[in-house]
Each structure stands twice: as C-alpha cells, then as structure tokens.
C-alpha cells in the first residue's frame, strides 16, 4: 500500500502540471488542489477517530468502514499532491524577473528558504508529530498537519492581489506529444513534397525559427516578468523529429515552406529533443526508487505499531 500511495503521489503531478499550464494557471491550480489535499487529511483524521472505527487495538482487525475512509483519504491526498508538487516552486519562480540582477539574487534566497522550510517541516513531522501519534493520539497526530495545511491555504490566499499571475498557455507535456505526433504524421507526406532533401540546412532553419521565437520570448507576462527564451543550437540527435519542421531556410538563403502540414518551429523541436535526451536519466532512476520504497516501508525510519497509546 505504501508503494502504491508513493507512486500515485509522483504520478499525479503530471496531471496537475498539465492543468496548470493549459487550463487554470498555477495560482488557481494550487488553490484547488490544496483544498483537495486538505479534504484528504480530514478523511485521514476521521479514519483514526474512535467513533468512526479508530485505530484497531492489539489483536483487532480494522472495520470495513475504517478501511474505506483510509483508502479514500490516501487517494484524495495523492490527487491533491498532484496539483501542489509541480506548481508551488514554479509559481514562486514566476514572482521574479530574471532580467533584473536584484531579482536573480532574491530568487536564490527564496529557494534556499523554500527548501529549508520543506526539510524543517519533514523534521518536525518525523519527530514531534510522530511522538504525538505514538504517545497521545493518532487522531491528534493527523489533525496537526491538517491545521497547518489550512493555515497555509489562508496565507496563500491573503497574497493573491500581489502575486504575479502568468496566464496558462500550453503544457510542455502536451507540446512534446504534439511535436512527436507531427513528426510521425509529416514523415511520409514531407518526403513526397520535398525534393531534393539535401538542399535543407537544418542549422539555417533553426536560426530562422529562432529569430521569431526569441522575439516572442521578449514578450513579457504581467508587466515584464519573463526572461528571454534561451536560444538552442541545432543538434544531430533524434533527427526524425525534424520532420515536424515545416518552415525553414535553405543553405542558399531560400525560404521553404510545406503547406498543409501541422508543423512547429525549429526551436520548439529542439526543446523536445532536450526532453528526450533526458529520458534515459529519468528511466535509470526508477529501479532505485522502487527499491528504496520497498526497503523503507515507513518514511520516518522503521516500522511503528498502530496500537493506541497506553
């Protein structure tokens, strides 16, 4: 159960990221999924409450009602995590304009404090909260993070008028899927319309696409908060993705365009190539994390009794 719950908490962020980037924006996504997360903590607290079944004593089996509430709580918490985990740090980064030196320094300070707070919270959870659960009450132990989450939501809402809100555009996940789909779809049709293919200079086409994209990168969101989009150089890896490019310049400077095909700029295709080159690193870490979850069934270090305190 621990492995399934942990896996769900690391899978649902893909959903939360897509929703934030394509539909709701980061602020509303964080707010909505934080509320869902709070509901999950409430259900988890309810599952340990004696009138609702509570934590079974020695030799006792949990009731079906306790199981139902517990598994529902874990599912809701995993769903809430999906909207919080991928967006909180990104929303914090949105508040800084990297074109200003002072903002770059403040951004570093922000993330230092942010990750220090996360580690401090983990320390408190694995010491003080665990002590309350073991020695006082599981219900109170679950209620403490619930109150902390409620306070965090209230503080987050209090600053809504001063935040920088970057509007949703397109999810990078969907962009990768669409570029790959366009490359596969265009492959045959592009070969029929382009003759000879040797006239295409991929490096020239990339520079041509970069001019428009870099200019778009200078367009800022909400009063000049985004830095310029980094300009990528042409790469020779994953050449099959170049079929998604439908507009380029030849080495002789001639402008070429294939009509009737879904296409993307050379810069966008290069960004997808970067993602694909990172996939082996991501895939190589799966076995490590699977083994770590199996070897560490309790995140706070070792098995603990579920029996109520004496």
Q: How does this model look, in words?
A:
- This protein has 310 residues and is mainly α.
- The protein has two domains: 2-168, Growth Hormone, Chain: A, CATH 1.20.1250; 172-221 and 228-283, no CATH class.
- It contains ten helices and two strands, in the order ααααααααββαα.
- It has helices at residues 2-24, 26-47, 64-84, 88-94, 101-135, 138-158, 172-193, 202-217, 266-284, 286-295, and strands at residues 247-249, 255-257.
- The longest helix is centred in the middle third of the chain and has 35 residues, at 101-135.
- It is a multi-pass membrane protein.
- InterPro entries: MFS_trans_sf, POT_fam, PTR2_symporter_CS.
- One of its GO terms (biological process) is oligopeptide transport.
- Belongs to the major facilitator superfamily. Proton-dependent oligopeptide transporter (POT/PTR) (TC 2.A.17) family.
């Amino acid at each position: 159960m621990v492995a399934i719950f942990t896996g769900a908490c690391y899978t649902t962020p893909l959903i939360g990221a897509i929703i934030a980037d394509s539909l709701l924006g980061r602020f509303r996504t964080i707010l909505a999924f934080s509320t869902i997360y709070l509901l999950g903590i409430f259900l988890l607290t309810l599952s340990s409450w004696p009138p609702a079944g509570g934590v079974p004593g020695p030799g006792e089996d949990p009731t079906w009602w306790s199981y139902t509430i517990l598994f529902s709580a874990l599912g809701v918490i995993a769903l809430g995590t999906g909207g919080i985990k991928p967006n909180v740090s990104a929303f914090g980064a949105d508040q800084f304009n990297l074109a200003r030196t002072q903002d770059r320094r403040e951004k570093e300070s922000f993330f230092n404090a942010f990750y220090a707070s996360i580690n401090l919270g983990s320390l408190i959870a694995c010491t003080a909260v665990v002590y309350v659960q073991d020695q006082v009450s599981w219900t109170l132990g679950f209620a403490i993070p619930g109150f902390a989450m409620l306070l965090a939501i209230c503080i987050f809402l209090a600053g809504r008028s001063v935040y920088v809100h970057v509007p949703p555009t397109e999810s990078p996940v969907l962009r990768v899927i669409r570029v790959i789909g366009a490359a596969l779809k265009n492959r045959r049709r592009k070969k029929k319309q382009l003759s000879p293919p040797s006239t295409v200079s991929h490096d020239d086409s990339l520079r041509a696409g970069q001019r428009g994209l870099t200019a778009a990168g200078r367009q800022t969101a909400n009063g000049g908060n985004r830095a310029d989009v980094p300009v990528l150089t042409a790469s020779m890896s994953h050449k099959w993705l170049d079929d998604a490019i439908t507009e380029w310049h030849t080495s002789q400077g001639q402008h070429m365009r294939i009509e009737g095909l879904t296409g993307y700029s050379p810069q966008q295709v290069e960004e997808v190539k970067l993602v694909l080159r990172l996939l082996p690193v991501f895939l190589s870490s799966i076995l490590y994390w699977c083994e770590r979850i199996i070897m560490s069934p309790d995140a706070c270090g070792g098995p603990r009794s579920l029996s109520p305190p004496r």
